[in-house]
């Protein structure tokens, strides 16, 4: 906040702190530009904490013939797995085959998928016998099972990667502020020369000047485009995707299931994540854009019925531990009516006012998106030309000594500091909730070092309890509110408000009938 009070002229102001905006902040700071990122909620509060958690080329896009997107995403998959080993891992997937032709059809398709990854291959796909498929996926539907095809893709923790990107950008000199939204643009001679932002906590208003402004607000890009020109045509066609989380006992084993054709012709995944199983997703065109999208009844039923068709252990509404929904920022094109067929490529537009807008794409391709956006900004604003150098940039916390999934691994090298907090005060070594490995020390760390401002930031994005088990998250709210209040010198009113606000949000993650 002190930095934006100084009235300096920034090289680049980024609006939006999801995968795209944070990637841009890293890229711009690494090139040496003076960069400020403003996020109106918490980092990754939008789509970027609600993904399927795959670092992938997109087998589905291969079937659609979008080779360019698949090759680009496979390259980025390879870079991300190397640059953030503490937040990503290689995951085995299996497509079960119920006829012999399926085995060969998917086997050939996945061999092409692997060939396209070239030197960044994660390992060749394999045709599995019926016995091996049963061994690797013990609960898979046995009737008429002929075997399976196994292949490899990446798996990650989306909001933790977002925090690591924020910290990386900060390491290279960027300024990032959450809970500070952009409400207007400043113009000089019809060109954008800055933004007006409001601090959500103090309601203080700021005029911020910049040589270039990048709109990286995901499904909200049209709102910022309208600040520039109220008659701007809409760019985004939002599509909702829902996931259900269930106990690992319903889908044991370490492989993930890929159902290649659901009843609506899409793919569905069931994958192990933080000791539970995430199942999804859907593709539902929506007209309403909301910060807290809500799963539709028919989306929940769709996932339950498609998963149950392939699994011996049937799941029902009462087995769901958490439901979460996210909005895809799909870019409108004149010839697409179905969101399932809409392109997952990213799009950049430079408005007459020089406002740069970037949306679409995937988490996996955030680095390439950032590179393209920053290069455009540098050109438009006449900044000294510096090449992008993020391809091999190790992200904050980088370590090969901890495996993603181990206790505190998502913090990487920062885990040492969390352990030091526990040495100073043993009580911080206690868990926040008996069913989860999250420690009280993580609350202190999140407030002091990761800009967690409220209870939801901690339970939803610094740790993933809300996404993994909404009831456990509600049970933890008092402990987290108490500790955050002590750390931030907040009073009883603040605590009561936090408990009420979080409990209300978490209701939507419980699977209600
Ligand atoms: C269901 C689903 C599953 C997916 N699964 C995968 C997957 O497995 N792998 C993969 O690679 N990709 C996946 N994706 C795609 C990926 O999640 C998105 O492409 C990516 O997260 C988009 O990031 P973003 O930064 O563009 O948008 P967002 O994450 O939505 O970020 C935009 C941010 O802008 C902020 N904002 C809005 N207006 C303002 C303002 N006026 N001022 C300041 N800030 C503002 C918002 O609060 C928000 O935080 C999935 C998407 C969905 C919906």
Task: Describe what this molecule looks like in 3D.
This protein has helices at residues 2-5, 19-30, 59-63, 67-83, 100-116, 130-136, 158-171, 221-228, 297-310, 366-380, 415-424, 440-449, 455-462, 465-468, 470-488, 492-507, and strands at 9-15, 35-38, 54-55, 88-97, 126-128, 147-156, 175-177, 180-188, 191-199, 205-215, 236-247, 256-259, 268-273, 276-280, 284-285, 322-331, 346-350, 356-360. With 513 residues, it is of the alpha+beta class. Strands 3, 4, 5, 6, 11, 12, 13, 14, 15 and 16 form a ten-stranded mixed sheet that branches. Helix 2 runs parallel beside helix 7, helix 12 (440-449) packs across helix 15 and helix 15 runs antiparallel to helix 16 (492-507). The two termini are 44 Å apart. The model has no long low-confidence stretch (mean pLDDT 95). The site of flavin-adenine dinucleotide has 39 residues, from helix 2, strand 8 and strand 16.
Could you provide a short overview of the structure?
By secondary structure, the chain is α+β, with helices and mostly antiparallel strands. 35% of the residues lie in helices and 23% in strands. The two termini are 44 Å apart.
Query: Per the principal axes of the C-alpha atoms, what is the gross shape?
Result: globular
Into which percent range does the helicity of residues fall? Answer: 25-40%
Which band does the percent of strand residues land in? 15-25%
Average pLDDT, all residues: 95
Q: Can you count the beta strands?
A: 18
Radius of gyration: 23 Å
Distance between the termini: 44 Å
Quickly count the helices: 16
The quaternary state of the protein chains shown equals: single chain
Main sheet characteristics: 10 strands, mixed
Task: Provide the list of bound ligands, each named once.
Answer: flavin-adenine dinucleotide
């Amino acid at each position: 906040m002190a930095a934006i009070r100084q009235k300096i002229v920034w090289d680049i102001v980024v609006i939006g702190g999801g995968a795209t905006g944070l990637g841009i902040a890293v890229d711009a700071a690494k090139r040496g530009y003076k960069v400020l990122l403003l996020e109106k909620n918490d980092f990754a509060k939008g789509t970027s904490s609600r993904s399927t958690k795959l670092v992938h080329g997109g087998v589905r896009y291969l079937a659609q013939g979008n080779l360019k997107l698949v090759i680009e995403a496979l390259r980025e998959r390879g870079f991300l797995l190397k640059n953030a080993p503490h937040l990503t891992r290689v995951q085995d997937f299996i497509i079960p085959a119920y006829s012999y032709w399926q085995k060969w059809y998917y086997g050939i398709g996945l061999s092409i998928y692997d060939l396209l990854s070239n030197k960044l291959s994660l390992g060749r796909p394999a045709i599995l016998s019926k016995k091996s498929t049963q061994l690797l996926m013990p609960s898979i539907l046995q009737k008429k099972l002929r075997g399976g095809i196994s292949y490899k893709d990446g798996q990650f923790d989306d909001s933790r990667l977002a925090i690591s990107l924020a910290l990386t950008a900060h390491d290279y000199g960027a300024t990032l502020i959450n809970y500070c939204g952009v409400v207007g643009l400043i113009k000089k001679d019809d060109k954008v020369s800055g933004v007006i932002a409001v601090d959500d906590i103090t309601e203080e208003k700021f005029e911020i000047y910049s040589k270039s402004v990048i709109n990286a607000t995901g499904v909200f890009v049209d709102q910022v485009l309208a600040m520039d020109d109220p008659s701007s045509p809409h760019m985004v066609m939002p599509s909702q995707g829902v996931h259900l989380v269930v106990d690992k006992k319903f889908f044991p084993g370490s492989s993930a299931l890929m159902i290649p054709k659901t009843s609506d012709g899409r793919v569905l995944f069931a994958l192990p994540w933080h000791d539970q199983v995430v199942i999804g997703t859907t593709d539902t065109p929506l007209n309403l854009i909301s910060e807290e999208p809500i799963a539709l009844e028919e989306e929940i039923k769709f996932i339950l019925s498609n998963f149950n068709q392939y699994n011996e252990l049937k799941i029902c509404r009462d087995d769901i531990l958490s439901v979460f929904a996210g909005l895809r920022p799909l870019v409108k094109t004149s010839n697409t009516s179905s969101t399932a067929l809409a392109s997952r490529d990213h799009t950049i537009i430079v408005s007459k006012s020089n406002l740069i807008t970037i949306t679409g794409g995937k988490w996996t391709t955030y680095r390439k998106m950032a590179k393209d956006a920053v290069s455009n900004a540098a050109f438009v604003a006449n900044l000294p030309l510096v090449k992008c150098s993020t391809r091999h940039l190790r992200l904050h916390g980088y370590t090969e000594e901890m495996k993603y999934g181990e206790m505190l691994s998502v913090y990487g090298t920062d885990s040492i500091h969390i352990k030091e907090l526990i040495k100073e005060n043993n009580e911080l070594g206690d868990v926040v909730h008996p069913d989860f490995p999250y420690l009280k020390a993580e609350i202190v760390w999140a407030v002091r070092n990761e800009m967690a401002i409220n209870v939801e930031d901690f339970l939803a994005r610094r740790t993933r309890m809300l996404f993994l088990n909404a009831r456990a998250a509600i049970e933890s709210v008092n402990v987290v509110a108490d500790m955050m209040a002590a750390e931030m010198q907040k009073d009883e009113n603040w605590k009561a408000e936090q408990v009420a606000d979080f409990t209300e949000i978490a209701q939507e993650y419980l699977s209600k009938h």
